[in-house]
Amino acid sequence: MSAQGTPSAASKPTGTPKGAWTITFLLFLFMLVNFADKIVVGLAGVPIMADLKLTPEQFGLLGSSFFFLFSISAIVVGFIVNKVPTRWVLLALAVVWALAQFPMVGTVSFTTLLICRIVLGAGEGPAFSVAAHAVYKWFPDEKRTLPTAILSQGSAFGVIIAVPALNWIIVNHSWHYAFGALGVIGLIWVCAWLALGKEGPLEDTQALAATETKIPYIQLLTSRTFLGCVAATFGAYWALSLGLTWFTPFIIKGLGFSQSQAGWISTLPWIFGATIVILTGWISQLMMVRGSTTRVARGVLGSVPLVVGGLILASMPHVQGAGLQLALLVVGTGLCGAIYVVCPPMLGEFTPTSQRGAILAIYGALYTLSGIIAPAVMGTVIQHAGSMLDGYMTGFTINAAIMVGSGLLGLLLLWPNTERARLTGGAPQASALKSAVSPT
Q: How many other C-beta atoms can be found within 10 angstroms of the C-beta atom of residue 283?
């Protein structure tokens, strides 16, 4: 055993097991379905508001309702995956997602739609943290940033691939059938996972729970890096939740594009964000190869884009022209993606493996609280503004301020390379200080 109470590097496998990238690809598809489920309400926002005669405040409530049980579910399931194989937890989550879509196929009331979104949110709350915990059982610490980036890209590709297809269904058939299509796709993933999904061989969480030295949860949850990850990602998720709910209504009602045009325009932030995420994952591992500490290669690399993105977004109300405003919105919010790549590996650096599932879940539960607040705030601001466009611009300015503040908090608090030593009183974690690791 090492000084930190976990198996030493010499006694643990350090290579990537056969099948690791197959599981990564399946979990990438898992996140793809996850985000397609999330964005469908925003994509169909204008026809939904028209059919159900919703005010902006009611639609904001609908967007927020997805997150009502999101955080609670994430925490509960996070502790479950400390004891239950992630294979079965992921399967159960995907079944809930699929079944929650089908009631919308027929005539539906606002209340039914609201309830189904709450149930879907409860099923999707633990998704990323459980998927990350699962994929980390296939990769050693120094090789986790790139798989995390790929996992994160399920969100972008869930939008890039699904939005044009779903928008075609909405335009040519009905928004009701878009929900049904997502239910069918969810069941297809369930079948694929039943056939191919496996538990990673590098870590046996139950065995480690009996042998490794644990760190009290209160110390983990109040560590500066944990607080920094929550604060930084809170600001990024504020932008993401606005994008999921309000981006398509903004480009239709605020900028004057049609529903058909909105289909491809809605993919732009995600295409740019996908590029940022992949670049961040690759640059982070390259920096570690060249000897950078994870404070720089993960903490600084993830926080600076938040500040820059917030400043770009803040300039949006002060320029003229729909094209330029759209470009600033896409670039400003797209830069947020860097923080999603680096925070889970940072938390994994100092969290004992048998506690990692719960810590990742609590982290996710806390930062996604912004998903409850942001859509509702935007809806209220729009409803009470002098004009709809003024309301949107005020809402995006609030978003910009939150992004800048969260990025600065990340710069101040993210010190993962020394966190474990501080928590245990031992030497810094070896994997965080390696100067030569493989970037793939």
A: 18
